[in-house]
Structure formats: C-alpha cells, structure tokens
Amino acid sequence: MDPQTFLDVATVVTKLKMYPYFDVAHYVLCCLAVRDDIVSQAQTAAGQALTFQRKHPLSSWLSSMLVCFAGSIVANFLLGEPILTPFKDQRDLATASIIWYMINYCPFDLVYKLAKLLPFKLLICMLKEVQRAHKVYHGVVHTAKLYPSAYVVIVVIGIVKGNGSGLIKNFERLVRGIWIPGSNELLQPTFVTKECLVASIIFLLERLGYIAVPHPLIYFGVVIFFVYFKISSLLLGIVDPFVPLENLFCAIFMGGMWDAMRRAVKTEPVKEEDKDGLLRNDVIKSKEEKKKE
Measuring CA to CA, which residue among 146, 141, 124 is closest to residue 218? Predict the structure, then answer.
C-alpha cells in the first residue's frame, strides 16, 4: 500500500465515531459475558444452567450495566470524579438496556444464538477492539491533562478504560450474589489487561515526544495489534503470547533461575518414613544372608 494512502486510512480510523456500531458491539459482548458467567456459575453450583435472568431480572440488568460502563465507573472512582456520570447519557443507557433485553429475553433465544456464531462474533470482536483502542487513548489523554507528571496514574487509567469489565468483575458478581475473591485481574491478569498496558505506555511515550511518528499511524498500529490478537485467539486459540516473555523475565529477575540452581545442587534430607524403609530392607537382607549360611 502507498504510504500516503496508508496514512489516510489511519487518519480515518482515528476519527471514527464510536456510536452506534462500535458501542453496540461493546454492549453485546458485555451482556454475553455476563450471561455466560451466570450459566457457568450455575453449572458449577447445581450441575445445570438455572434461569437466573427470569428469577432476578434487576440483578441481571444491573450487573450487565456495570460491565458495559465499567471502564468509566472505575476510572471516575480512581480520579475522584462522580462514578454515576456514565449513566447520565440516556442514549447509551437505553441502547445497553435494549441489547441486554434482547440477549436474555429474545423469543427462541435468537439474538444470543446469532451473536455466538463465529462469523458474527468475529465482526463484533473486531468492532470492540477498535473501541478498546479508542478508550485507552482517551483515558491516557484525559488523565495526562489532570496529572501531567503522574506517569503511573496515566498508564493505570489507560488500562482501566480499556479493560474495566475485567477489573470490576468481582463487584459485578457480588451484585448477583457470588463472591470469588481469588479470581481477579490483580492475581491473574488476562491478556487484555497486558495489551492495554502496552498500548497505554505507547500512547504515553508518544505524548512525551519519545516516538517521532504521526499520531494516526501510532493509533492505527495499536488498533491492528488489538484486532490481530483477538482474531488469533478466536481462530487459532492463542490465549496469551506474553507468557514466554513473562517466564523468561521471572526466571532471570524474579529468582526463578536461582531457585532452579538451588534445587539442582541441594541434597534433600532423608525423611523419617524413608529411614524406616531403609532399616527394614537392611533387616530383611541380613535374615536372608543368615538363611543361606
């Protein structure tokens, strides 16, 4: 592709409006995630999928809305801004509520089944990843205006904007009466959190002037990065390409290499039960030798 044409395409992607197509894709995936989590928790508890949505529609709606607007809710909470601000936009709230209703209560479950088909899911996920890049970038820009020199805060808000649904999952489950504190993004960070971290750092370095590349190209590169790995995870089953790098880093800088060397050199003491076994073997051998004599 001609460089100028590529730059023009990147500029168009940078100026895309998120509503309605990209926001709708985001709301669809969020409502699907909540419903699938309800089904998985019901199967774990009772061995079958319970009709939670019909018994507790308010809890189902509230948990879905928390996931749909999680990035703004968590970011506003961390920045000391009103956490209910995302709900003041009646258009977005109504759109998310309609999608929640169609995902959970459509006749014959048609919308849910259609959204789970691979071609439609690929399209929805691609739109969602474009919106994720948009959220990370605007989170970095907004925080940089509030705290120009707080680089850690800027990166954290970028991550929160990009993957707020993963960070709020424990609270969202609590609304549905489930508490699993051992499952959260801090203990088990997903690939989405890691890629949002990388994107936030890239946008921050661009803002500081360390990357001398036109902004549309940087933004478009992040979008391609998000979309490529999402498609790879759906089609090829690639879960987390950062794992080999993390293992290497931990082995070198987090003591993993020294632990391996210590285990290889250190001789483990013989346990008491092993000592008893060795004594019994010696007694048996001595008796056999006496019989032979």
Answer: 141
**d(Cα 227, Cα 282) in Å, to the nearest integer?**
67
Give tens-digit pLDDT for 160-182.
Answer: 999 999 999 999 999 998 888 88
pLDDT at 284: 56
Q: What per-residue confidence (pLDDT) applies to 240?
A: 87
Dist. CA 30–CA 99, nearest whole Å: 10
Per-residue b/e over 117-154, b at no fewer than 16 CB within 10 Å?
A: eeeebeebbbbbbbbbbbbbbebbebbbeeeeeebeeb
Nearest alpha-carbon partner for 223 in 1, 16, 23, 33: 16
| pLDDT for residue 46 | 45
Q: Is 87 helix (H, G, I), strand (E, B) or coil?
A: helix
State how far the Cα of 241 lies from the Cα of 274, in Å rounded to an integer: 43
Token pair of 190 as six digits: 């997903």
Query: Is residue 276 very low, low, confident or very high in pLDDT (cuts 50, 70, 90)?
Result: low
Run of H or E residues at 18: none
Three-state SS for 8-54 is HHHHHHHCCCCCCHHHHHHHHHHHHHHHHHHHHHHHHHHCCCCCHHH
